[in-house]
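Q: I'm writing up a methods section and want to include an example of the input and output format. Could you take the sequence below and give the corresponding predicted structure tokens, formatted cleanly so I can copy it straight into the document?
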Amino acid sequence: MAGQAEVDEIYLGLDKRGVHYVLPAQAKGGSDRIGIVQIEQDFAICAAKFPALICRSIAAHSPD
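A: Here is the clean output for your methods example:
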């Protein structure tokens, strides 16, 4: 992956079966929109930095 990408927060998780997850989070408010490019970048970052973990992207929007 070349260039820069921004992830608001990254969480790591473990379920009761022992499966490991990485959860990148994007958050927007007001008239800002969450774009598909941001979500795709989250998956790319996870694949590069945490290749053994399952990625589950989270996006949240607050209307203000």
